[in-house]
Amino acid sequence: MEERRGGFRGGRDRFPPKPVEIGKEYEVDIQETSRRGEGIARIQGLVIFVPNTKTGDNVKIRIKRVSRRFAEAEVVGKEEAEGKEESES
After folding, report:
1. How far is CA 8 from the centre of its chain?
2. Number of CB atoms found within 10 A of residue 22's CB
3. Beta pairing class for 70-78 and 46-50
4. Does the pLDDT value for residue 10 go beyond 80?
5. Which CATH number is associated with domain 18-79?
6. Whole-Å CA distances, 38 to 10, 53, 67
7. pLDDT in tens, 48-85
8. Is-contact 65 47, C-beta < 8 A?
9. Nearest to 27 by CA among 42, 37, 17, 46
10. Residue 79: helix, strand or coil by DSSP?
11. Within 13 Å, how many C-alpha atoms sit on residue 77's CB side?
12. What is the pLDDT of residues 19-55, one digit of tens each?
């Protein structure tokens, strides 16, 4: 008699390799704001939470933590053009 295995076990295939790595830096655009007030960026579909940012910011980030469905990062630099706009106002 043939043994049948039901369900999806193991789970590794459900979460493909992440497009980011801890400690690496990326330049991103903040697309929206989370309920907790953090900026949200996406890299190849992976959600990145970035504190102290707002929608429209273009920032350089460093990845601090990567989990199954999202990553957390810190700002290491803001785009220079943003500073020029503020000084002209």
Report:
1. 27
2. 13
3. parallel
4. no
5. 2.40.50.140
6. 32, 6, 17
7. 999 999 999 999 999 999 999 999 999 998 865 444 45
8. no
9. 42
10. coil
11. 7
12. 999 999 999 999 999 999 999 999 999 999 999 999 9
